[in-house]
Amino acid sequence: MRVDNSSIAAHNEKGAKAQQQRFSFLQDTIPNASAIVDKLVAFQVAIPSWALGTGGTRFGRFSEGGEPRNLEEKIEDVGLLHALTGSANAISLHIPWDIPKDAVATKQLAASFGLRFDAMNSNTFQDQAGQALSYKFGSMQHVNKAVRQQAVDHNLEVIQYGKDLGSQSLTVWLSDGSCFPGQLNFRQAFQNTLESLQKVYKALPEDWKVFVEYKAFEPNFYSTTVGDWGQSYLYASKLGPKAYTLVDLGHHLPNANIEQIVALLLMEGKLGGFHFNDSKYGDDDLTVGSIKPYQLFLIFSELVEGMDAKGMNHTTDLGWMIDASHNVKDPLEDLLQSLDAILIAYAQALLVDRKALAAAQANNDVTTCQNILQDAFRTDVRGLVAQARLKAGAAIDPIGYFRNNSVRGNLIKERGKGGVATGL
Ligand code: PSV
Ligand code: MN
Question: What is the dihedral of CA 22, 24, 26, 28, to 10 degrees?
């Protein structure tokens, strides 16, 4: 299903007057409102191919209907998100869930929606049908060299798929670890993993990056071999300049100060990419900004400050991606909400008066420091985000469009009620 421009124009016409009033108020109250809108227009977030169907838990899965049945339909869905928001111009594939049968045609289809291929994701956390050796006791950390080599070979294959599609990065998330004390020799597991990653790193094309994603626990519950940012940073440093740490917001122990982690990784030039989501308890994969919006803002505040300090391009110098799952919401509506939350937090971070904050910090004026951040956070920037969408030719109110135009209903008509998209 393709969204035609005229239906977006009709939608925007209805909301135009209210938006104009909202934006002109913001222009009066925020000195750099138009410059912020331009930054919002430029900002793009990749959508994971595995988040387009309804997620589930080990207890059950409740399909929304009209889920994409193949890679082509997943690309269509991301095209739809991009048409409605103007801020989702890439798709990130997980192999082997989404192997392109014909890379040229797949690339062409994506391009017809204005999409490119973001990071490629390997999967050595599940056994596949016909696979020679099992990952039950890990992949790159495994005590058996042949299993480690199988995991390396899989990653090389993923790089090849990515090269064919024009991707320029590989994300490696390993579920490797142990469930009980004594099960693993930690140093050996680390060294095996490092050696395996080094083989993958060697095969990386010149203009590619590899992101080493960490996660505190699950599916292993005693130790994880890439368990936190320190371990990821160790691997990334030992691997070389094309290796970076990837921060998935849900992969920390409760109450971790993610904004501080981000600030330091950025300072060291080792922050590579992001997986946005939100959580209450663990790796809940909830809608971005739905539980801890202030934390999301604080993270963006560090990102903006840290990237500006290094003269980095906000849009292109880090890999931005959503990694969420939806048990009780329409996946497309959920992704629209996530994209909105990301842009809101980014816009608020752009509002922070950096000079005043630095001065207050230098004076140990704690009250003013807090007020400066909270002033920005408490500013209603939704009119700026809507203005950016309008400027990009997208919908002022994407969820309003989605509902008024019965998008899910049309997808169900087209694809059927019972389909279940591949993924977790
Ligand atoms: C693991 O929990 C993770 O965050 C990794 O990024 C995986 O690739 C993805 O989720 C799989 O669902
Ligand atoms: Mn992730």
Answer: -150
Terminal CA-CA length for the chain: 24
Q: Which residue has the tokens 């989404």?
A: 98
Tens digit of each residue's pLDDT (9 = 90 or more) over 123-151: 999 999 999 999 999 999 999 999 999 99
| CA distance linking residue 231 with residue 210, whole number of Å | 15
Q: 84: which 2 tokens?
A: 């409605």
Q: Please report the pLDDT score of residue 424 as a whole number.
A: 64
Mutate to test the pocket of ligand 1, among 212, 248, 279, 424 (most ligand atoms within 8 A of CB): 248
Question: Any idea which residue has 């990386």 for tokens?
Answer: 204
The CA distance from 226 to 215, in Å, is 7
Residue range 245-297, pLDDT digits in tens: 999 999 999 999 999 999 999 999 999 999 999 999 999 999 999 999 999 99
Q: Are 109 and 68 in contact (CB under 8 A)?
A: no
E strands along 112-154, which residues?
116-121
Q: What is the largest CA-CA distance in the chain?
A: 66
pTM check: above 0.70: yes
CB of 424 shorter than 6 A to ligand 1? yes
